[in-house]
Amino acid sequence: MTRGPKPKENAQRRNKHEHAQTLSSSTTEGRALPPGLGIKTAGARRFWKTWATSPQATQWLETDWAELEITAKLVDSFYQGDTKVAGEIRQRVSKWGATTEDRARLRMSVEDQDPGEAGTAADVPEPTTTDLDAELYRLLSE
Description:
Structural class: mainly alpha
Low-confidence stretches: 117-122
Number of helices: 5
Largest sheet: 2 strands, parallel
Number of strands: 2
Mean pLDDT: 79
Distance between the termini: 60 Å
Strand order of the largest sheet: 1-2
Radius of gyration: 20 Å
Helix content: 25-40%
Strand content: 5-15%
Shape: elongated
């Protein structure tokens, strides 16, 4: 048994936030990884590709892309063994909506897309399994 009055049949939610945004789940072409960054690890290249083709990237300005470059350098140093930068990386990606909780806090939602409408990936080469395995082995054996 519920308490209180019965809800109206045509009840509407009225607390929608004025800055809430809905993004398309289609992947974007994104930007290619700038060669001048000097990214050495496959993990950092994968990080760039993930964020450059994310639904959030369709809304980014030049300042956001500059932040992605800085964060990619931090991720590169993380994969090279500098684990002290992990907290900084987490703070930066949370501002872009990295997790479900982050997107809820930012009032960001991603609409579903039909599987046949998938976009193309950026020109960043996909790291091979051997690259990732070798990198993981190097990190674990230090």
